[in-house]
## 1
Amino acid sequence: MSQFRVEDAVAMDALGVQLGRALSTAVVVYLTGELGAGKTTLVRGVLRGLGFTGRVRSPTYTLMEGYEFPGRVFHHLDLYRIRDAGELEFLGVRELDAADRWVFVEWPERGVGDLPPPDLELKFELRDAGRRVGLNARSEQGRKLAAAWRTLVKAAAVPGLAGLE
Ligand SMILES: Nc1ncnc2c1ncn2[C@@H]1O[C@H](COP(=O)(O)OP(=O)(O)OP(=O)(O)O)[C@@H](O)[C@H]1O
Ligand SMILES: [Mg+2]
């Protein structure tokens, strides 16, 4: 599994911006890692990379937030506070695998069986004062996205952000 070393929150935001720039086809991305690992920080960067300039709220209590882009909808889920399968059904997560969506899910382990399968899994880990983000591509689309992302990150040469094998 390849990884990024991300030394601070500014670098995490920059990593997200490059992922947003790499997005094209519809994909499902799972973000795993403990509370405070940097998942929402990355998603905020992704939305900025897509050109969104408004405020990005963490879906901690709403469970799901949506953002409209030309021809695509971006869904940001945080399932940490999900209580039962009925709530997932109410959110309509089973319909999220349509071809016109980008779906980013924090705490996907709480939605097992109901969520669409991931194209890319990102595993966040605390390391010293910073973070590591591991990449696990689970489909051809996910592999393409990961490759495009790594190329953009390298070209951006952001301080405190490095790709590792
Ligand atoms: N690479 C990093 N190094 C150090 N601090 C970071 C890094 N990335 C994010 N942070 C900081 O970690 C804190 C928590 O980040 P964030 O809210 O993104 O975590 P999260 O994984 O979404 O947590 P939760 O599971 O509670 O939703 C924030 O203060 C953020 O600025
Ligand atoms: Mg979060």
## 2
Amino acid sequence: MDQHVVTWPDQGNARIPYRMFSDADVYRAELDRLFLGPTWQYLCLADELPEPGDYKTSFLGETPVIITRGEDGEIHAMLNRCAHRGNLVCLKQRGHTTDGLTCVYHAWRYDLTGKLTSVAFRRGVAGKGGMPESFKLEENGLRPLGVDQFAGLVFGTLSPDAPPLSDYIGNLIGARIGRVMRGKPKVLGTTSQILHNNWKLYIENVKDTYHASLLHSFFTTFQITRLTTGGGVAIAETGAHHASYTIGGQAADKSSSDKAYSNIHSLHEDYRLQDPRFLDTVDEIGDGITLQILSVFPNFVLQQIHNAIALRLVLPKGPDKTELQWTYIGFEDDDAAMTERRLQQANLVGPAGYVSMEDGAVGGFIQRAIKGGEGECSVIEMGGHEHASQETRATEASVRGFWNAYRQTMGF
Ligand code: FES
Ligand SMILES: [Fe+2]
């Protein structure tokens, strides 16, 4: 796709042409320039692969990858595409192998770093056939990814042009990852859901913190969050990554003269939860931040909602289809009560979450509504036109930040 096919509106990141969410050429260009380009994408937790021989599969965009713990104790990642004729080498989501990785089609065999170690019938049968002398094992491995870790999170890239991971993430967002990922993580469960919308509509939803008290009637009904609670958004300089946060503001705090909030009436003023256990929050980090939603460009989300901590990976599956994967975690030193609390609070999120259910639906509504309006634009002006950090959540600065980084990477 030619870069002058896209003429961006004069208002810059405050206007997004709807075709960005539906155009097949834009989507194809994203797979190449962004997902196979100089970005770092979340692959797994290092602790998910504790032993040499453990492996997991994932994707860079739509491109399948394998992540392994090698005999050297290090984490490796490589394309999940056989160097022979392109078959998937690993068919399972996760597993353990004691004899490397073998392609089912013609039994080419690779070690845990992706090096080709043997080819069946390489010398032919009874002196006939086989590979020519010029064929070299070392020239036919699985294509390796660059791999690095940040706070126990493993990221990969296919591009040699990606900056070092710690520079890519930066100190502002790095510190906010660190405050959540401060122990040895333990996976409590996973879910996956298909969203009937473009992947960027979900990313916009994650970055847009001001919809929370408007779209999510669970919050207003049970008075769990409001925009006037302290908080703000921290945004990386390029706009690429963000963390929105809420300070304090525990449930059922009805004390303030909260004008903005009082305009948003709950349908059911007198509703109370029969089982309020999941509102029992412990300030485990000790900084009073009850809620932090963080994104690393392009498609990783780290969530702390009270004590519910989850990793979300947003995988594109076509211009109007997305897979959203959730990994719910606790930490090795959690006691049983904390694990129970995290699982209770996890009811807020996921495919059928009391809150997240709407986020899964609203992107599909937009995808339906923009048909025929591909030349028109959305309006992103809440909080101004810039994408700098702000001490308010009544802003779309982090959404504009995403588009700033997106346009830079895509050349739009
Ligand atoms: S495609 Fe993998 S061995 Fe032939
Ligand atoms: Fe939401």
## 3
Amino acid sequence: MDVKTCATCGEAKDLTEFRKAPTCRDGLTTSCKTCLNAAYRAWYAANAEKKHAAASASYQARKDKINAHRRAQRAEQKQATASE
Ligand SMILES: [Zn+2]
């Protein structure tokens, strides 16, 4: 069984204890799932409010653009089907 040492807790754990990370050299995160979860929970507790506000603002900003794009796509599809 392959193991990898977690950069955060320093424990050697099974590869299944690490999340996939395509951008990392070995394709896995440097910290184990347990450490990532703990770090995320701590980060989330500190940033939940901020994150929520930012996500909501960026969604609102994108929404109109996305809707317009979808409408255009639908219109195009309709035209394509009509001309067949
Ligand atoms: Zn760890």
## 4
Amino acid sequence: MVEEKRCCVCGEPLDPDNISQCNLCGGYFHMAWSVDVQMHECGRYWLNEQTCSLWFICTNCEHRLPSQ
Ligand SMILES: [Zn+2]
Ligand SMILES: [Zn+2]
């Protein structure tokens, strides 16, 4: 039996096709990978200019960061 992943932000079950892992806390959260998907998102991504890599961040961690 596969353990069900739950969103680290809202606590609801995750859709394995629309999921991201936070680079800061390591938790999984809701993220829509298709424009056709109607779902709430619990985080966002941005391009880290120092490492030129894509970073994912959940809403929990976003709120902990100082605004830039
Ligand atoms: Zn969520
Ligand atoms: Zn996080």
